[in-house]
Fold this sequence. Notes:
This protein is α/β, with parallel strands linked by helices. It folds into two domains: 2-87 and 201-420, Adenylosuccinate Synthetase, subunit A, domain 3 (Adenylosuccinate Synthetase, Chain A, domain 3); 103-196, Orthogonal Bundle (Adenylosuccinate Synthetase, subunit A, domain 2). It is 32% helix and 21% strand. It is built from 13 helices and 21 strands. The strands form five sheets. It has a ten-stranded mixed β-sheet, sandwiched between helices. Strands 15, 17, 18 and 19 form a four-stranded mixed β-sheet that branches. A three-stranded antiparallel β-sheet has the order 12-14-13, with helices on one face. It starts with a strand and ends in a 13-residue tail after the last strand. Guanosine-5'-diphosphate (GDP) is lined by residues 8, 12-18, 40-42, 44, 291-292, 296, 327-331, 410-413.
Amino acid sequence: MNTLAIIGAQWGDEGKGKITDYLAKQADYVVRYQGGNNAGHTIKFGGKTHALHLVPSGIFQADTKNILANGMVIDPVALCDELALIESHGFSTDTLHLSDRAHIVMPYHRSLDGMYESFKKEKVGTTAKGIGPAYSDKTLRRSVRVHTYIDETRLRLHLKENLPHVNALLKQHGFKSYDVETLIEESRPGRERLKSYVSDTSLILNEALNEHRTVLFEGAQGTMLCMDHGTYPFVTASSPTAAGIPLGAGVPPRSINRVLGIVKAYTTRVGGGPFPTEIEGDTANTIRKRGNEYGTTTGRPRRIGWLDAVQLKHSCRVNGFTGIALTLFDVLSSLDSLKIATAYSLDGKTIRSMPADPADLARVIPIYETLPGFKDDISKVRSFSDLPKDAKTYIEKIEALLDVPVQIFSVGPSREETVVRANPYKTGGDGND
Ligand code: GDP
Ligand code: IMO
Ligand code: MG
């Protein structure tokens, strides 16, 4: 089977969009399977930069089909705006399929997102897109799915039954409430626009798998933002790991045979929560500036830190990476030395795995291995052998620490600034072919 999963190995923004776009030319399908427009995936080619939030990063390939699968939460207004923007740049959106079973982010979910944040002493720092409340309504079995949303009669019935509970909660805490008919009226253009994209995407994908088509699964967020394996409660409301794919796309678990972990050459995090290798000061500012580390979705400055092998091993474990794509490698050039955390110290004890309690994770002291930096600009490098010696050493150190091959490294935001050492579709792990 020819499938590949693209998974964020850290706290999101690892360059999943760039790598997905690069690998999409070999894919018949690109599939988003979780999250919503909290994601911001940046793609650069032909001198233009595109920011995608909901639409899969295969949309710029004429022959690749793009699937918004059942595990996603869809804000219809945001999706319509994104489709219009893509079309205004001259790309067709006819290759898109939207699952009839995906869940809808309603306008009141954004209000609830703000409300729940206001209750918290230590803020999650959500993207305020309504993602957590939309997934909560899914769990509470009172969410609107796409098939209901596009049917006005059923949507009205649904809202009449469920909106009073949402309104009661909002009113109790001083937030504005919503009216059924206004919601119906305001959603009409979006409902009409999206109808033509709606399909049973699990059927489409299973048929594609049976025909041995190449399918690329594009994770959003990152492993450390996973509800189960991340730094709970400072996480998103979905499962961005490889384990989320079968559930979120309606494909058999055995269809995921290779998993490419996207690893930023350092670490960033946006929003609240523990971050053991976080640094501040000159080095952090240099990295933030060179890496343009400001959120694609919210514009917030990203927190910066050194690479963390304890955290990455945790990611390798829960995802079973068969390869790594190392991104933003060029950003590290010019630094005198580079640090990688290889263990933590907690209350005087050396530990090699991440404590569950965020308060403990916030207290750990990283134990670093220091490597020499590389001075040369590597953005023009197009093969491993052309890298400066100390840059090679950094890659080899990561491979040794994680026991996973670095199959791709990226030396700039553009498509052509990508170096493939081994084809991630065809190599790494046992592949189960
Ligand atoms: P995603 O959410 O994982 O898709 O990542 P984002 O797009 O939010 O953030 C990654 C940022 O790094 C974007 O601005 C990309 O254009 C940029 N980027 C990706 N790869 C590279 C790289 O190798 N070098 C540099 N300098 N920038 C990169
Ligand atoms: P991509 O796909 C980085 C973070 C938010 C916040 C937490 C919960 O671009 O890598 P949410 O709105 O999801 O309830 O916020 O998760 N977060 C991301 N951080 N990249 C993302 O997506 C993120 N999506 C959510 O900042 O800390
Ligand atoms: Mg992003």
